[in-house]
Request: fold
Amino acid sequence: MHEITEAKSVVLLSGGQDSTTCLYWALQEFGSTVALTFDYQQRHRVELECAQQVARLAGVPQKTLPINTFSALGNNALNETLPIGVNQETGLPNTFVPGRNFIFLTFAAAYAYPRGIRNLVIGVSQIDYSGYPDCREGSLKTLQQALCLGLDYEISIHTPLMHLSKKEVIELAIQLGAFPALALTHTCYLGQQPPCGKCPACRIRAQGFAAAGVSDPLLFSV
Reply:
């Protein structure tokens, strides 16, 4: 039996600029949404605070779900105190948390199912990204098919940023009215506020704002 809810979508809100843009996209696309944030024992707890602030500014309900398994598995720079670098065995950045997006979306589907929600929104891109295999369009299309079969329930995974560069994401945020919310977001892999400006995440973010020809509002809010 489905619960009564007004939400038409679930947005995976990490507290970063991409998921924040997706939150505003979902509001425009579906008219109502709920933000779902995951506490996976990430090193930088500031992400959780940012997600709460963004959801509050957007006026949407937000729920944080705890997942401690990634911390137990370890061996990534987002859960452990490791220097940011490349995994020599896989060739992927050690900021890659294996299975993270698949697990998040599976939990999001489990959250959506009893509430009669059929749309999941996630801010991944295979253009400006770090090579994470669970950000690829083919991976997520396959996961969507598996979720529909496993739940016997039609559910769609929306990836509005999949083919956008960081410059285009910022332009979309401006178009959607999400730009002020970007001042509340967090990207820095080192968890610093102000951001370190040197880690891969900070550099990609800075390049996007430079290409879009606008100043990052985050730099004026801390």
User: Anything to note?
Assistant: DSSP finds seven helices and five strands in the chain. The chain has one domain: 10-220. Helices lie at 17-30, 46-58, 69-73, 100-112, 137-151, 166-176, 200-212. The domain at 10-220 is CATH 3.40.50.620 (Rossmann fold).
